[in-house]
Amino acid sequence: MMAHLPILPVLIPLAAAVLLLIAANAGLAVTRAISVASLILLAVVGAVVLDAANDGTIRVYRLGDWPAPYGIVLVLDRLSALMVALTSFLGVAVVLAAVSGTDARGRYFHAFLQFQMMGLNGAFLTGDLFNLFVFFEILLLASYGLLVHGGGLQRARAGIAYVVLNLSGSALFLIALGLLYGFLGTLNMVDFGVALQSVAPVDQGVVAVMCMLLVTVFLLKAAVLPIGFWLPHVYTAATLPVAALFVIMTKVGIYAALRVTTIGLAAAPFTADLLQPWLTWLALGTIALGCVGMFAATTFGLLIANLVIISGGTLLLAVAEPTVTSIAAALYYLVQTTLVTGALFLIADALSRQRGDVADRFTDGPRLQSFTAIGLIYLVIGVAACGAPPLSGFLGKIMVMQAMSGSTHPVLVWTALIVSGFAAALVLARAASVFFWEPGAPGFADRPDLPYVPARGLSLALVVMFCAVVAVSFAAAPVSSYARATAEQILAREAYVPAVLGDPAAVQRERRP
Questions:
Q1: Do the Cβ atoms of 209 and 176 come closer than 8 Å?
Q2: Res 502 pLDDT > 80
Q3: Does the pLDDT of residue 337 top 90, yes or no?
Q4: Are the C-beta atoms of residues 12 and 42 closer than 8 Å to each other?
Q5: pLDDT, tens digit, for every residue of 134-183?
Q6: Cα separation of 471 and 484, whole Å?
């Protein structure tokens, strides 16, 4: 079983998705049971994967036993294990929230959800750029279905724009892959770095442009300025549990950029500093864009979407200047910001259920009927979201700030992180004032047509996410220690080459004419 461990996070949701399509007419209770059981099993496998990777071993799974770089390989190391475990945990919370009624709005919600999990885990585990493209397409196709789930004009408009944007990105991705393969003769991530070292000087400029095109596609997925304006429109159009799952999708772009940068681009002198200095400025601009968007937000969901943009810009700082300390800080921050923003979307769902047609808009509405419980969860998650002590958000921000003290623009980075934290605190306090502190609007007082039906699945999902955020705060030492070990492993490129390729001198690559 341990020998096949790297492929289980892909096979489990794939098998569940196929089973859900077969049982599409069996009823909602059956599809819910299959989906929940699959994601709980996936979360258990995620925990096993995380524990297995903690010994520092790089596990390579060769499909069909074809050797790299000729065959498809899955690579399980500390970074991919962390992302798989985090994705699987988030998937459990999302499906628990969805079974409270969201999934009943469409027939194939759970099948799309499973395909989404398959695409996400595959993207984190693959060791090949072309198969990264394949898994990107799987998760994007599933996200199209999840986005328009429930129907409506707003979702249809957002879906069309989202599809067109991602089809354009996929076309650029495929073009970049074709051109790179023509020059390098390989798309294996590790072999990609080896091949870059032997590029002739006359071809280095062209190959560098292709690599920049590839990174641009990843930045599109991560919603980085100036190609990140799509995110608020898409995230606010989706149902709120789906938006909570979409939180991890922007991290796929950051993950891919970090992986390609450290394993591939860093191997050759002419691509080692390819992303400097412009990537740092894009990260700072993305943080600024998110701050402006938060102040302009008219709904709680839109506010959270802009928090996701800020988190993407913060994580991009580590990709811009990858060191052990910056990557370690970014990984800890990635875990906490994924949990926090995912939890905030679920809180928005709980608020919307109690406020009727007003939903999560910042306007007068009926008073909440589960005031204390939601208020307490909101307080803790909000403190973590704005980076205030003593929770994980504060620890993550401090780690990033310390790591970036030796960067090219430390004053600007510190200013951006501090200002974004204050901005988040202000807008979250404003939201709390509307939802919890202000009395209900007179027109909504004692309205019998707005009964609150407790959503057990959503309540359980909120408790799970709440406990996770608190746990990451209290377990900051072991989590940050794992993050540092992960950063050291990522940057120790010499360990990946023999693990994945064996003897790189024995690899025969195709050459362009």
A1: no
A2: no
A3: yes
A4: yes
A5: 999 999 999 999 999 888 888 889 889 899 999 999 999 999 999 999 88
A6: 18
Extents of the domains making up the chain: 2-501
CA 252 – CA 89 distance, rounded (Å): 16
Give the tokens for residue 198.
């032997």
Retrieve residue 448's tokens: 């019998």
Residues paired with residue 73 on neighbouring β-strands, in sequence order: 62
**What type of residue sits at position 377?**
I
| Six token digits for residue 31 | 């599809």
CB count within 10 Å of CB 509 equals: 15
Write the CB contacts of 482 (distance below 8 Å, at least 6 apart in sequence).
Answer: 54, 78, 82
Burial (0-12, 13-18, 19+ Cβ within 10 Å), 428:
buried
**What are the tokens at 143?**
């996200």
In the DSSP assignment, the letter for residue 72 is -
Q: What's the rounded Cα separation, in Å, for the pair 377 and 16? A: 32
CB of 308 closer than 8 Å to CB of 247: yes
At residue 451, the 3 state secondary structure works out as coil
φ, ψ at 68 (rounded to 5°): -75, 145
DSSP string, 376-422: HHHHHHHHHHHT-TTSHHHHHHHHHHHHGGGSSSHHHHHHHHHHHHH
Q: Tell me the two tokens of residue 324.
A: 């052990």
**How would you class 280 by CB atoms within 10 Å of its CB: exposed for 0-12, middle for 13-18, buried for 19 or more?**
buried
CB contact at 8 A, 501 and 73:
no
How many Å apart are CA 242 and CA 349, to the nearest integer? 10
Q: Give SS3 for 246.
A: helix
Give the C-alpha separation, 210 to 205, whole Å. 9
Whole-structure pTM value: 0.92
In 3D space, the residue among 466, 457, 77, 474 whose CA is nearest the CA of residue 241 turns out to be 457
Tokens of 505: 């001198």
| Cis omega (within 30 of 0) for bond into 390 | yes
Strand ranges (DSSP E) for 149-300? none
Give the pair of three-digit tokens for residue 297: 């937000």
Burial (CB < 10 A; 0-12, 13-18, 19+), residue 201, is exposed
pLDDT higher for 440 or 87? 87
In the structure encoding, which two tokens stand for residue 346, read together?
């679920």
Other beta carbons within 10 angstroms of residue 358's beta carbon come to: 18
| Nearest by Cα to 341 from 289, 302, 368, 397 | 302
Phi-psi label, residue 509: left if phi above 0, alpha if psi -120 to 50, beta otherwise = beta
Structure confidence by residue, pLDDT tens digits, 224-256: 988 888 889 999 999 999 999 999 999 999 999
Q: Residue 288: which of 404, 394, 417, 384 has the closest Cα?
A: 417
